[in-house]
Write a structure and sequence with these properties.
The chain is an alpha/beta fold. The protein is built from 6 helices and 6 strands, in the order βαβααβαβαβαβ. A 6-stranded parallel β-sheet has the order 1-6-5-4-3-2. Helix 4 packs parallel to helix 5. The longest helix is centred in the middle third of the chain and has 11 residues. The radius of gyration is 17 Å and the shape is globular.
Length: about 150
């Protein structure tokens, strides 16, 4: 579909670098490596700003470098619309049903990168990609990966 599948920052303690490299070598994409890689407004940040997404976006945007991107988490289509109107570079569409994802792509797809996340499994990833979102982020490709038994016999 052209949709990228990206890992999240949810990784096994001490193994982030290895898991990130495994995803990249497996054909996946990186999300943020750490909190300093891009600004991201999530639901807790919006609660701290008394729910005023527009004000929160303006505050964060004012402090960003000209090279930095801003990603805003949206739990509803209305929040996604507002995030795009306020200049978000990426909108994380969190736990939205397929029909709402399709509607977001139709309305906003050319104005910001649209990322689907939340509750996506290996069984549902194809259907989510077919909605037209640009990126799917999931911890399933790091936390859900099977362990490998490596022996160091001498």
């Amino acid at each position: 579909t052209g949709c990228r599948v990206a890992h999240t920052r949810k990784t096994t303690p001490g193994l982030r670098l290895l898991e990130r490299e495994a995803v990249l070598h497996g054909g996946g994409s990186a999300h943020r490596y750490n909190l300093g890689a891009a600004a991201m407004l999530k639901d807790n940040h919006l609660k701290a700003a008394n729910g005023d997404m527009a004000q929160a976006i303006r505050l964060v945007r004012r402090g960003l470098s000209h090279t930095a991107t801003l990603e805003v988490e949206a739990d509803t289509l209305e929040q996604a619309r507002l995030a795009v109107a306020e200049g978000a570079d990426v909108v994380l569409l969190d736990n939205l049903p397929l029909e709402t994802l399709r509607q977001a792509v139709a309305e906003l797809g050319g104005r910001a990168v649209l990322e689907a996340s939340g509750g996506i499994t290996l069984e549902t990833v194809r259907a989510v990609a077919e909605t037209g979102v640009h990126v799917i982020s999931t911890s399933q490709i790091t936390l859900g990966a099977p362990a490998v038994d490596i022996g160091l016999d001498m």
